[in-house]
Design brief:
By secondary structure, the protein is of the alpha/beta class. It contains 13 helices and 14 strands.
């Protein structure tokens, strides 16, 4: 009765079952998997946010496939002020309800059923579900760690087939926190031109560079057909306010054709709602309030993690340049999932095992850096106590 594309393994994994078991016992769990900033003890300007949703203009139905001009202008202003992109054409910017929807639009635009996209490994597990729903096959290319993360350039040409349509980069990556560096950017443009591929750049964590420096956005990339995805979920730490976008850039003829097709896709779904579009300028302005809080939290937790790691020898933190996560390398005495289950049962600490993010081997834990500082410090203490027995 059901489609093959939704034939996922829907049974709960051991970590989820253990979490329910420990919670039912009444134990207080220290959560180092938290990704929801609205539950991380941040100070939001609640009255400003709520008032922004009450625009009288939202009563009028004005369906525009690319999104309201005022909302797109606010996104262009964000790129101008935050990333120095002064020539972003509003006609090449299309609003979506989420980056996930943005991915689905771009996947549909580029791929016939069974076509392929190259995606980084390790990376965010959501890609697999999005690809399944769009009948796309994902082909991983490795990020390798050698004094920092980097793309494995030699593996990319070997991964390309006649069905390859594009390559996905996450800038910075989730969970490795590694940016696409300038020499990698140049390689990607040349690689896409040589093989006739599109470039899909996920930049949701772009504003969270740990050195507080500005990193180049792909939104102005002119050398290859490029689709840049982002949204207020991370930029303004507002995942409940469903505003995201696709910026199309590259050679003019390809951009125009891609944008025309994307407009039809968007017009077919009519997904963006009026209140959030009218609120978009305010939602983006809120980044000035929230990003500083989050970066301070992330850097304080990183400092605490390093302080505790310095007092032991069993574990080490991998280099991280941006985003909300840290990767901990730990001794391999069992699978990462078994270790995460043990930490939950014995120490009441919840972490993500590396295999959730498709790490190539065991020995990795992923820790959220947006957890509240006291809980983070105590959770790390418990993790290291167990790893150094």
């Amino acid at each position: 009765m059901f489609s093959d594309r939704t034939n996922w393994k829907l049974t709960r994994n051991r970590l989820t079952e253990t979490l329910e078991e420990v919670r039912s016992s009444g134990a207080h769990i220290l959560d180092l998997t938290i990704s929801n900033p609205t539950r991380a003890g941040l100070r939001y300007e609640e009255s400003v946010l709520l008032q922004s949703l009450a625009s009288p203009q939202a009563i009028d139905y004005d369906p525009q496939p690319k999104g309201l001009t005022s909302a797109r202008a606010a996104v262009a202003a964000y790129y101008r002020t935050a990333h120095g992109i002064h020539n972003l054409d509003l006609e090449h910017l299309l609003l979506t309800t989420s980056t996930s929807e943005g991915y689905s639009f771009v996947f549909r635009l580029l791929c016939n059923p069974g076509d392929e996209l190259l995606v980084p490994k390790p990376s965010y597990p959501l890609f697999e579900f999005l690809a399944d729903l769009q009948d796309v096959r994902l082909v991983p290319y490795p990020l390798i760690y050698d004094h920092g993360w980097q793309m494995d350039f030699p593996s990319l040409p070997q991964a390309v087939t006649e069905r390859t349509r594009g390559i996905v980069v996450v800038h910075p990556n989730n969970p490795t926190g590694s940016f696409v560096h300038a020499h990698e950017h140049k390689f990607l443009n040349r690689f896409c031109r040589d093989h006739g591929l599109a470039l899909i750049a996920d930049e949701v964590f772009l504003d969270y560079a740990h050195d507080r420096a500005e990193h180049q956005s792909f939104a102005a990339n002119a050398d290859a057909l490029t689709f840049t995805l982002s949204g207020v979920s991370k930029i303004s730490a507002l995942p409940q306010m469903k505003v995201a976008w696709i910026v199309t850039s590259g050679p003019a003829a390809k951009v125009e054709e891609a944008q025309s097709r994307l407009e039809v896709i968007s017009d077919t779904y009519l997904s963006m709602n009026a209140p959030l579009q009218w609120a978009t300028p305010v939602l983006l302005e809120q980044r000035k309030n929230i990003q500083q809080q989050l970066l301070n939290r992330v850097l304080a937790n990183l400092e605490e993690l390093d302080r505790q790691l310095a007092a032991q020898k069993a574990c080490q933190r991998l280099d991280v340049e941006g985003g909300w996560y840290a990767v901990l390398r730990v001794p391999v005495t069992q699978t990462d999932e078994e270790l995460a289950v043990d930490l939950l049962r014995r120490k009441s600490v919840l972490v993500h095992p590396g295999h959730f993010y498709d790490f190539p081997s065991d020995g990795y834990l992923v820790l959220s850096l947006i957890a509240m500082e006291k809980e983070f410090a105590e959770a790390v203490k418990r993790v290291l106590e167990m790893m150094n027995l």
